[in-house]
Write a structure and sequence with these properties.
alpha/beta, Rossmann fold, DNA polymerase, domain 1, seven-stranded mixed beta sheet, 15 helices, EC 2.1.1.199, RsmH
Length: 327
């Protein structure tokens, strides 16, 4: 079984515009599918591969071991700036985010991401995290759980499901036990009940891994790190992620004069990004047939603006690696 099938590979490579000797980041390496495609398309790049999941890093190492221009980093992408600074990298020329849960995480029973298989209620992408979905379900009060299901799952029955969890006579230890409680409210065997379970499990996963907070921070750090003409490419799989990506890109694209007329605006703001995808790019019907997970994928891309005149007049040298590392 494939660890994880990468989505919209051709589109990612096109928007990243890989160039020999330049520095790139795969912020969500997973099993290394996108990374491998990047290296095959342009073997002479320097690539830093991030993932918080130790199993993903181990798997990526197996398929990328022949490349000596790759460094695997087990860390959440919210630590992107810190980890690169530690390696004396001051700027990058492209970065890819493929968000959400991987195929392996969903299919690996003991990780507890899926309600379709009975497993311990876990959902931690990084196994070193202190609190799991078990802690959330059994320790949080009804109001907090309601907010989680409503905010991160956009679930209409959020309060009723949270209340049913609170009334459980014993600790909820497995995914099946939680799914049964959800079914007691939403019903069983219908498309509506299936969607409710998807939303509840999604909400818990997002909460446990602090996915949206990490995403906002990482996107802005990535944009700040990009060199002029550097590219950022983000694939999201649900509306909450896509909304954050869209809003972050729009803010980064605001021009100085647009920002200055806003009340309480930061007058030092400068345009950082040119959005390359006015509408999100979606997978082709051919890809969806082969990889159904790609159906919900939305790709957005942007390019870092050039502010200094000397950079628009002078061609950039192809070998960037040494120039971006502190001596």
């Amino acid at each position: 079984m494939t660890f994880h099938t990468p989505v919209m590979v051709k589109e990612c490579l096109s928007y990243l515009n890989l160039r020999a000797g330049y520095i790139y980041v795969d912020a969500t390496t997973g099993g290394g599918g996108h990374s491998l495609a990047m290296l095959k398309a342009q073997p002479e790049i320097k690539l830093y591969c991030f993932d918080q999941d130790s199993e993903a890093i181990e798997e990526a190492g197996k398929i990328l071991h022949n490349y000596n221009n790759v460094e695997l980093i087990q860390a959440n992408f919210k630590q992107l700036r810190t980890e690169l600074a530690y390696r004396k990298i001051k700027g990058i020329d492209g970065i890819l985010f493929d968000l959400g849960v991987s195929s392996h995480q969903l299919e690996c029973t003991e990780r507890g991401f899926s309600f379709e298989k009975d497993a311990p209620l876990d959902m931690r992408m990084d196994k070193n995290l202190k609190n799991s979905a078990y802690n959330a379900v059994n320790e949080l009060d009804t109001k907090t759980l309601t907010n989680i299901f409503r905010e991160y799952g956009e679930e209409q029955n959020a309060y009723r499901i949270a209340k049913a969890i609170e009334k459980s006579s014993k600790p909820i230890k497995t995914t099946r036990e939680l799914a049964k409680i959800v079914e007691s409210i939403a019903g069983k065997g219908t498309k509506a009940s299936l969607k409710t379970k998807v939303r509840v499990f999604q909400a818990l996963r997002i909460y446990v891994n602090k996915e949206l907070e990490s995403l906002s921070l990482a996107l802005q750090d990535a944009i700040n790190l990009l060199n002029p003409q550097g590219r950022i490419v983000v694939i999201s799989y649900h509306s909450l992620e896509d909304r954050i990506v869209k809003q972050t890109f729009k803010k980064a694209e605001q021009k100085n004069e647009e920002q200055s007329v806003l009340p309480n605006s930061n007058k030092n703001h400068q345009q950082q990004l040119i959005i390359l995808t006015k509408k999100p790019v979606t997978a082709t019907e051919e890809e969806i047939l082969v990889n159904p997970r790609s159906r919900s994928a939305k790709l957005r891309a942007g390019e870092k603006v050039q502010r200094e005149k000397r950079e628009t007049k002078t061609s950039r040298k192809p070998n960037r690696q040494n120039s971006q590392e502190e001596k």
